[in-house]
Amino acid sequence: MGEMIDLTASCGHIFQAYLTGDPHALRGIVVAQEIFGVNRHIRRVCDELAGYGYQVIAPALFDRVERGVELGYTAADIARGLKLREPIEEAAVLRDIEAAAAKLAPRPTGIIGYCWGGTIAWLGATRSKAFKAAIGWYGGGIRAAQDTRPNCPVQLHFGAEDKSIPLADVAAIRQRHPEIPVYVYDGAEHGFGCEERPSFNPRANEIALHRSLAFFAEHLT
Asked: Which residues are annotated as catalytic?
């Protein structure tokens, strides 16, 4: 449904992004990828969100180290994704998501991210003023950065059975930020929103998507 386009970050870095949705849409969403690149799943997420009346863009954050990365969900893919992510600094990610937001301007724009992207959504909320709302799905790095203050409303989603994000971390985030709605889904593991992973949980995904859409509808005005 969409197309790959080129964007230029403030540092001059040229990278690709998947753009989809009505070009006349009144609201925009930046989708922050997992550690698997802007792959088929992330493009499907973008197309689904676009179907609710948004223009949506997913910056290819791995272009900082290798262009055109699209990984699956095997153990080897996970290892490669982690290796690709390692040298990418937060400041570089911030420039890339801000360039993506600028592509959607002047629409009110939110950011939503999954896995690594969930942490990136937190980065967008706390270290940028480009977004009017931010949503993180199972962002494992949020706990370490919880002392930063968001510049926009934030909503967070976690799986109760996520072995990579202890419930103690979720509790710490809740305690530090009682103003943020934090949802935990019983029986859901890490990656519960990805239909291509064994951990996909259709029920948790449906509820989290409904809550995410309602949150954006409330704040992207």
From this structure: 115, 162, 190
